[in-house]
Amino acid sequence: MTRYQDDIDAIQALKAAAGSPWNAIDPESAARMRAQNRFRTGLEIAQYTADIMRRDMEEYDADSSLYTQSLGVWHGFIGQQKLISIKKHLKSTNKRYLYLSGWMVAALRSEFGPLPDQSMHEKTAVPALIEELYTFLRQADARELDLLFTRLDAARAAGDETAAEFIQSQIDDYETHVVPIIADIDAGFGNPEATYLLAKKMIEAGACAIQIENQVSDEKQCGHQDGKVTVPHEDFIAKLNAVRYAFLELGIDNGVIVARTDSLGAGLTQKLAVTQEPGDLGDQYNAFLDVEEISEAELGNGDVIIKRDGRLLRPRRLASNLYQFRPGTGEERVVLDCITSLRNGADLLWIETEKPHVDQIADMVDAIRAEIPNAKLVYNNSPSFNWTLNFRQQVYDLLAEQGEDVSGYDRGALMSVEYDDTELARLADEKIRTFQRDGSARAGIFHHLITLPTYHTAALSTDDLAKGYFGDEGMLAYVKGVQRREIRGGIATVKHQNMAGSDLGDNHKEYFAGDAALKAGGQHNTMNQFS
Length: 531
Known about the structure:
Elements: H1 3-18, H2 27-35, H3 42-62, E1 68-72, H4 76-90, E2 96-100, H5 102-108, H6 125-157, H7 161-172, E3 181-184, H8 192-205, E4 209-213, E5 229-230, H9 233-249, E6 256-261, E7 268-269, H10 281-286, E8 291-294, E9 306-308, E10 311-315, E11 323-324, H11 330-342, E12 348-351, H12 358-369, E13 377-380, H13 387-401, H14 423-433, H15 435-442, E14 445-450, H16 453-469, H17 475-489, H18 496-499, H19 502-513
Parallel strand pairs: 1-2, 1-14, 2-3, 3-4, 4-6, 5-7, 6-12, 13-14
Antiparallel strand pairs: 7-11, 8-10, 9-10
């Protein structure tokens, strides 16, 4: 027996018990609707996907080639089409997630209009997007199963038992489009209570993994912008605890917390850490401050002083009332941040770097793993990096180190198209191709994501269409560049009425009204041109 058949039998029993008022109810139709609505709440999704992530983390610990990936998406439709494409081309969603980028929520989802990634957008936009994404993924399930049910009915009508059994097996073994979402909560949008409240909304919408960063909430900057300000560890730990309490309250006991550190690029702190004794966590944080030793006589009005080893140290304070760290301490601070986060409830780490360099990441991870051997990363394969220039320069430096002749290249101009067909460019492209594999093997990267790729693809594809359509190509720009490619590539959106639920709705109408149903998919529906 299968779940599908079990549901048919259960509804048949309900129908028998209800008697004649249920005469019009078809148990198999109701069972189909149940199959098409597997997840009834966001919490069911959060638990289902948390189990997936925990399994994937264990598998990665045993074999680093089993890393996971995602692309950032900013709309439910984009997330849906991504998962449809994955199932079509790769046959399974295994190890593929979605990423919800705070950057894209700010830039594309705020009622204020486009905003920079500085936590100025409405915090409610984050759980709203999670809910929207899962609505579209569940609709993808309903649509795909509806197509299978239609094929099953056709096979039965034709008396083809072999085909009917095969289609039934596809229904019984159906793989959902619902996958884990790693969701960006920025720096928590306020104090720990605000973080807890927002985390609850995100989990209730379906998020099984929440990423939080160690910046000051009201001074939050994009990870690839200047002016980042971190908080002392105790402040960040309070927010890690807030997220964990939200998971526990809602019964998602294995929810995943991703602790992000921006310390590599953050040279400022808003306040000094509280310290009780030499060498404690607060003292370690303060030890990275840029200070000058002074005498008591040199104390100025309003000076803040640290006493260490009998010396009076005055931290360098800016006009903004922020304190600065000593230059060159970023990697040490990152390592301390990561170890501290893992010891205080985080499950995964995120180290925001200024370039994609496996050895740099690995050096920090090696130091972290000396304390916590199974430490692993979520890593941002960021569009803010110039991947072409970075990797061509890495190859240039490697060739020079090996004694190869690089005199034919200008290291500062390696982005130039004139180098595209060179051996150096080919070596660089190969390093880009294998970056995720290499990073997972060498640098402990469990999950690779691109934060805002679909922001760029939307702009690029729109530019291509607008350039041709409003130029000499006219309608051919759409036909050749979009529709013809959809037809020949088997892109489901070519039947946009079906994708929007037209056929699904027709079948429901038939369940509800039988032969009296007024359906949209008849012979005059122009979508039939794409059959």
